[in-house]
């Protein structure tokens, strides 16, 4: 039975190979060269379309984050720069932690992080005006997104090992993690700045 299955599989791959190797006999050289250009351009167009989706997402994220940046930077523009610097350091540290750990050590975190994110959303909807809940949600959101950096980094590496090399979508995953961390850090620095002002006053 196993031998029959292996023979049938070999026949399938052999037929596929013959389809491609027989093309030079079926098509003239000019036609083959033209089709190479056509399919090469098609692949490039599809790649550009995916890049356009990523740039479109970046644009929408920028529109969404812009008002927060304007609000935070209205009193002290250095908060935005400090938040960006802290985010880069945090993102880099958690990325290196994921890369230096065992290749699948943190892949189990996916379900836990998604569940925690759902609980965070429900909590913020139940008590949106409580300052204690707001503070807990911000810190928990920051911790969850740091966890996603670790998880997504190892997930991307594992997908690459299995042949999934869609670098555009993988970039989007980490981009979303970075932006979320940046938002939370900005809010925390803004809250700290306001507390310091109240103490001085």
TrEMBL record:
One of its GO terms (cellular component) is mitochondrial membrane. Keywords: Membrane, Transmembrane, Transmembrane helix. GO terms for biological process: cellular response to unfolded protein; negative regulation of apoptotic signaling pathway; negative regulation of RNA splicing. Its main location: membrane. It is found in: Membrane. It comes from the Eukaryota. It is a multi-pass membrane protein. Belongs to the BI1 family. This is Bax inhibitor-1. The lineage of its organism: Eukaryota, Metazoa, Ecdysozoa, Nematoda, Chromadorea.
